[in-house]
Known about the structure:
Layout: H1 3-16, H2 20-24, H3 29-50, H4 55-72, H5 81-93, H6 98-108, E1 114-115, H7 119-140, H8 146-166, H9 168-173, E2 176-177, H10 195-219, H11 224-246, H12 260-286
Parallel strand pairs: 1-2
Amino acid sequence: MTPASRDLSRQVLRRHARSFSWAARLLPRRVRADATALYAWCRRCDDAVDLAADARAASDALARLRGELDEIYSPRNVTDPILAGFQDVVRRAGLPRRPCDELLDGMEMDLGPVQYASFDELVVYCRRVAGTVGLLMAHLFGVREAATLAMASDLGVAMQLTNICRDVAEDERRGRVYLPAEWLGGAQSPTAGGADTARAVAELLRRADTFYRSGDRGLALLPASVGVAMRAARLIYAEIGGVIARRGYDVTRGRAVVSPARKLWLVVRAFFDTAATGFAARRRLAA
């Protein structure tokens, strides 16, 4: 990876990934650089669609992203620093293309007004835009076992469900309602839904916890050198849900934020939890 690609990817991470950047610092240097390049590419895709002027421009941006992905997976070297950094990771880590295509499929689901009727439909979306990132991260760590990859996908889904609960008001302004319509009691607007919206957010966070628990089983199988960082990310994201809960699931109270002091405590906890998990695993093997 060139210095230009590495530096630009770091800038993207510092600017946008307030939660993940804390965890990324705990990764070994090489893995951290690769994870940062992956994040920068994902962010490029997300911004290309979200910041488009209108639906037509967003559709054109998505077509451009698909073309860029063709270039990344081609034998030719790309020159754009973000694309070149990700191409280097793809080649060295052997990242599969399918999750990348599925991530763009998920972004296509964001074109135009968004309204999901059921939780099952919402999970399809979350699998595509976030479960895929979990899969790619697991591949960076050398994971190839199907069961562990499935748990990594579940962790991505859990984080996306948490993000949805955090961003209800912001998403609504963009014409996107991710809370399942069947949970909103007929409310036309989540921010005006009152008690129905609060119950929907509480239920979505409860279901996110199920995905977090599956992800925890996968984290226990990772080497401690990367497991502690991913556990820190998991704890920080889940704490966003804790902030929302303490606000009474009121989506009109602004963006839920985890304080730096709390993040630091959760990083410390990640070290202890990872050590405890490793100790328990060694005891099982010795028994």
